[in-house]
Amino acid sequence: MKPFDRSIKIAPSILSADFANFGAECRAIEAQGADWVHVDVMDGHFVPNITFGPSTCAAIRKHIKGVMDVHLMIAPVDPYIEAFVKSGADVVTVHAEAGAHLDRSLQLVRSFGAKAGVSLNPSTPASALEFVLDRIDLVLVMTVNPGFGGQSFIDSQVEKVKQLRAMIGDRPIHIEIDGGITPETAPLVAQAGADVLVAGSAVFKGGSVETPEIYGRNISAIRAAAEAARQKFAA
Ligand code: DX5
Ligand code: ZN
To answer: Measured from the CB, is residue 49 less than 6 Å from ligand 1?
Structure first.
């Protein structure tokens, strides 16, 4: 059996891409080394910002070869899970705070055939996941309050990542981090046990589909910093 992949994976968030050009932006970041494409769905109710829904996800899907990682910042979430899975998402992540019945939401995601993720806001403890660990494929730790790109990393979350890593043990569950990830903050979470790093501003800054090599440089800088921190930790 193939061992579970805990290598560092970089997931650029298209929240920082050109919204009028998602197709080309997705192709550019994948060509420049992105492992996953992170897609932020916001409803103006669960979070104070609005992005887009399942039909946009379905349109984007055609331009992504690898993993489409859909982060739902919406409440209620259950009525929309089927549509997002059918839009072609490989991973659908719901927020633990989005409804009263997290266990049911996670079962729904898997029942339609996607990997199930659960996201924790900065104020939500790791223990919120204690009794759903066997229902999830990924935990997404928010290192900012969700809603906007370009915010500062909240340091207190590093301890939460460590707690989750210990709780997960040998279970095949990814630890993904979202918010304020840069080459400076990536080492902190990589050392604590994270394997998927979402980055919006730090990937797209300075680049465009006309200058995609800048995306490539930004992705490599985050990856190198995270991998170096892991090696140091393992040594
Ligand atoms: C925030 C979103 C993030 C966001 C991260 O609510 O979930 O994915 O795009 O942006 P940066 O990397 O700029 O903090
Ligand atoms: Zn996100």
So the answer is: no
Helices (H), 10-77: 22-31, 54-61
The whole-angstrom separation of Cα 206 and Cα 146 is 23
Query: Mean of the pLDDT values across residues 120-145?
Result: 98
Rg (CA), the chain: 16
In a domain, 166, yes or no: yes
In this prediction, residue 235 has a pLDDT band, given cuts at 50, 70 and 90, of low
CA 218 to ligand 1 centroid distance, Å: 15
CATH number of the structural domain spanning residue 154: 3.20.20.70
Query: Angle 54-61/22-31 helices, nearest 10 degrees?
Result: 50
Distance 40 CA to ligand 1 centre (A): 8
Residue 233 pLDDT more than 80? no
Evaluate: CB of 48 within 6 angstroms of ligand 1: no
Cα distances from 164 to residues 61, 113, 194, in angstroms, run 30, 25, 9
Question: Residue 186 is part of which domain span?
Answer: 9-234
Give me the amino acid identity at 5.
D
Residue 144 lies in a domain: yes
Instruction: Transcribe 61-107 into DSSP letters.
Output: HTT-SSEEEEEEE-SS-HHHHHHHHHTT-SEEEEETTS-S-HHHHHH
Domain-embedded: residue 119:
yes
Instruction: Inform me whether the pLDDT recorded for 6 exceeds 70.
Output: yes
What's the whole-model pTM score?
Answer: 0.98
Residue 145 inside a domain? The answer is yes
